[in-house]
Write a structure and sequence with these properties.
Strand order of the largest sheet: 2-1-3-12-4
CATH architecture of the largest domain: 3-Layer(aba) Sandwich
Helix content: 25-40%
CATH superfamily of the largest domain: Periplasmic binding protein-like II
Mean pLDDT: 88
Strand content: 15-25%
Number of helices: 12
Oligomer: single chain
Number of strands: 12
Structural class: alpha/beta
Number of domains: 2
């Protein structure tokens, strides 16, 4: 169900009523309100739901689908969500604004080949980085980690990222926007890349001269205050996410129907998608390249250590 203002207000009240795990009956699952996106890069949560991992951990996931990490972070800060999926840059920017969001568990990573690419019209002639100069390009989140990595790619492959006009366009509507020539292209991830290929769009991968060959795309975040107030609940969720990520890394074929279920993509196209590897431990070296790239482009105003974004308990 999409997040609406009425839904957010209702969830805020519901979150306040969620008991601490210590007060819940051992055989009663505790509901946690979690925000994410209907995409392959958030599928580790779906694996945990559909394989019963969360149920075995004594958790019931109230799933809320949102457009991007910025919306998720805002909902967590507002108290409408307990936990959600966000990228490292979003969390760093939130901390610089005085909002104490922290990662409690990792999500997915980038590796080669990258499951992120530019999508343009086949007749637009946008093939190299230089071809993006002066173009209007969509992204699902302005100044998020993927878009910053894309700026680096443009600048280090012969283009000029400062000449690009960026607009925020959700993945779900980007193909139509490109076809209608409202934008020249979009920086996209799966399953939308597969949909773009099916629609006859041109896809350009980001696989040369990038600022990192492997990095953490996203992870599961909470406010530090909520995490401190619910340490046992956090411990259960973290353990379940580690198990889900390991399951995703070791049960590739079994993930296909789950990805199809939540992304609404035909299962037949799932095997051909470039998929994200799942990270099984929070790791500073996998986060620091994103933060350093953001500092290089002036999005972060000062150096941020990756470890400052990780929850370490009380």
């Amino acid at each position: 169900m999409p997040m609406t203002r009425r839904r957010a207000l209702a969830l805020t009240a519901a979150v306040a009523a969620v008991p601490h795990i210590a007060s819940a009956q051992a055989n009663e699952p505790v509901t946690v309100h979690v925000g994410t996106q209907p995409a392959e890069f958030s599928a580790d949560l779906f694996y945990g739901i559909d394989t019963g991992i969360f149920q075995r951990a004594g958790l019931s996931i109230d799933l809320q689908m949102l457009a991007n990490g910025a919306q998720t972070s805002a909902a967590i800060v507002a108290g409408a969500l307990n936990l959600g999926l966000a990228d490292p840059l979003s969390v760093a920017l939130a901390q610089q604004r005085g909002l104490d969001l922290v990662f409690i568990a990792p999500g997915c990573g980038f590796a080669m080949p990258w499951p992120l690419a530019w999508v343009t019209r086949a007749d637009a002639g946008i093939v190299t980085a230089k071809d993006f100069n002066g173009k209007t390009i969509g992204t699902n989140g302005i100044k998020n980690a993927p878009s910053l990595m894309a700026l680096y790619w443009i600048d280090h492959n012969g283009g000029d990222s400062q000449s690009v006009k960026w607009v925020e366009i959700p993945f779900s509507t980007a193909i139509g926007a490109i076809q209608e020539k409202r934008i020249d292209g979009e920086l996209m991830a799966e399953p939308f890349l597969s949909q773009a290929r099916e629609a006859g769009m041109h896809v350009t991968g980001l696989d040369h001269n990038t600022s990192a060959t492997r990095w953490m795309v996203n992870g599961w975040v909470a406010s530090r205050a909520w995490a401190n107030a619910n340490p046992a609940l956090v411990k259960r969720f973290v353990a379940a996410m580690y198990e889900s990520n390991h399951w995703g890394n070791t049960h590739t074929v079994e993930t296909y129907p789950i990805i199809a279920k939540y992304t609404k993509l035909p299962e037949a196209v799932i095997p051909g998608m470039v998929k994200h590897p799942w990270i099984e431990q929070l790791s500073a070296p996998l986060v620091q390249p994103v933060l350093d790239t953001a500092t290089r482009y002036g999005v972060l105003t000062k150096f941020v250590a990756a470890t400052d974004l990780f929850y370490a308990g009380h």
